[in-house]
Amino acid sequence: NRQQQQQQQQSGSGGGSGTATPGGAAGGGTGGGEGEGHGNNSEAYGSGSGHGYEQHQQFATSRGIIDSTQLERDRREKERLELRDIVGKNLTVLSQLEGVDIETYSENVLPRVLEQIVNCRDDVAQPYLMIALAQAFPSEYHLATCDDFLSAVCSLKPTVQMSAIFTSLSERLSSYLDEPDLSEEEKTTRRAEFDEKNCVKIFLNRAQEIANENREMSALEIVQIYSSIADFALRQYPNDVNKMNEVLLGVAKAFDAHNVTSEDETRLSMSPQRYIRDQRAVSALVKLLAIPLETFTVDVALSLHAFPKALKLLNPETAGRDCALAIVRGVLKSEKPLSDVKTVETLFKFIAPLLRDSDNKSYEMTDLNTESPMKGSGDLLDALSLREERRGKTRGNINNKKSSDGDEGHEENAQFAEEQMDVAKLLHKIHCPNDWDSQLHLLKLAKVTLFSGGEKRMRFTLPALCYSSMRFAKELLSERELEERKQHPPAKMSDEDAAAAGKLMEEDKPKRTLEELEIFEKHLQTTLKKTLQITHQSAERFSEIPGCAERGLVAWSEAGMFADSAKLSDISYEFFERAFETFDEKLSSDSRAQNRGLTYLIGALQTCVHLEEENRDALVHHCATFANRLLRRADQCAAAANCAHLFWSLKSTAIRDSEGVKKCLNKALKIANQAARALGVSPGESLGLYAHVLNKHLYFFEIETCKAVDVETVQHLLDAIREMIQSGSSEHGGTAAWRDAEAYFGKIKLDIKNKRKIQNETTGGSSVGENAERSIGGDESSRSSSSGSSQFASERYRRLNL
Predict the structure, then answer these.
(1) What are residue 656's phi and psi, to 5 degrees?
(2) Model-level pTM greater than 0.85?
(3) DSSP per-residue string spanning 251-283
(4) Could you read off the pLDDT of 418-433 as tens digits, one per residue?
(5) What's the gap between Cα 12 and its chain centre?
(6) Whole-number Å distance between alpha carbons of 549 and 596
(7) How far is C-alpha 785 from the chain's CA centre?
(8) Cα separations (Å) of 308 from 198, 359, 571, 616?
(9) DSSP letter, residue 351
């Protein structure tokens, strides 16, 4: 009824501007002031404010009516929404009255409207009216009255959602600067007015006042208010670190222990240790703490002194992990590497919940045994260290020590695995190529930190540390190669190499003297050995973790290959010895893992050409011995055939033993014959073994200087396999193993036929392979050698009867 009466009054007095909205009381005032002069603007403001007050009361009262039937409640809700629209339009019309300038708004309009909003005392009406007020009037009006507006927010009902009001006002203030079609002069003037007002400081002061005085506000609401202020500050001051620091300091003060009483702990969902327990508030705070990492560089974001104060509000065992994960992912998004020691130290402090358990003391850290290469960065490192002599102690104690993270059979859930994989990725961001001492120091710091995390975490993180250290070692070797190229440039270079060398001489430091070169080489050798020591310790600790022996063997083998490429034969031999030790002790109960591990070891050892002859012979003997110990005959046959590659290297003429190759191939053929007569081997599997042995023979058959395989041996194998297929196809041809083996043999024959065609080169024709080889290019000697080898293989293949 009051709504209908209001509409009748509006229709009776609407002779002015003719506003068609139900909130036309303000429109009537406009008409009187504009048209006939039967009043003044002050009366219009009063009339509009008076009608607005009645509408505010109607809007608030309509929410309190609860009827018994659902239909009646729906009708009332519809009326309330319509009335809310009327109130909003009334404020819009009020803002459009002639003569409502900033002074009039701040002295007459705003105080009356705010008084009505504060007095309505409704949870939904108050925030809606404040947001409507912020949207109705121009942004420059709010810039002048920002403090008064937020002062009224402090007086609202305690249960009102105030974060939405902060967000709405901040958007209106931002629009003052972001308004399109502004000239450069206008933009400069507005920016000066905005900076002079210091709105961010006003927002922070009022937010602090609300947090201190409003004893009914939830933890989520407090965090959301400061998140709104952070968005506002970064939108207008994207490069101002101090603004973000003030926001984080404000949220820390809002939950400060001095301001939180025992009664407030329940209201704010805080534990007695002053940790926030409300999961929604925790998630909001984690997002707030991630903002500086996504906005600024990593070192700048982590240097905020308020960051750890806000971080203390999170329980490190639960919410602290979420925040640490947000920090790690923020760092991963950044393109800048972690090259500063102090930054990495601070980062490891912040992400400690991901690196170790709070009660984890499984690893002693007392002295890093290395001075910090950068001044002022040794505060944390003075208390951290790893005993370098741990290697001798670990072997006897590791099997007797129970992991602090749980039983050995503990299965990692997907979330934990994802978190630790992100930590592993973080290690690859640690990169300081121009400062060897700092890079080595960072790797040692990472080693100490990761070793304290327990086996549950190290199964994910230690491989990354191992390969990061090898990457740094490879960079050291590249530095040595560049220096050698500068000292002794090659006599003949291609145009591209010459251009690259010239550019290197221009950009790099000048050529070193003999004395400087000696110092450089000594420093490089020392750094390289210390880096490989980190690799050794990481691979050792990783291979001792239950369930990680096979991956540890791969890490040992990779390190051995790299040490050999660096011509560090003793270190390479040590790595391979540890790999075979891991194979013998940790993989003895898993035949499949043994087969995979031995295959990888043979492949890794095959690439090594700088090992001393005695050491290499010992490692080759290990491979042959372990090949005989494999459980399945098929695995023994394949491993024996693979061992033949250890006696013939294409990289070094010193490792070419035809007799050794022949012995391995004969051993493989003997095992294949035994498997054909064994009860546990199917005919199809036996046929596949013969095809595999034939394929290995053909590899050495093509090498002109290798006398291990002749035409008669290959022909004998071909005839034997053909005879097996002819006699067994009718009986065993339906099995999958037989079909696969027969297809394998068919591909071998097809390859032989294709290689026979190379003979056409001498008569003017050329095969597809030869055309491709010529298109690649290269010097004449390599093409001649390749052509000669192909012709030799072609001649031998033509002597075979397929």
Answers:
(1) -145, 100
(2) no
(3) HHHHT-TTT--HHHHHHTTB-TTS-B--HHHHH
(4) 999 999 999 999 888 7
(5) 68
(6) 12
(7) 47
(8) 26, 20, 43, 54
(9) T
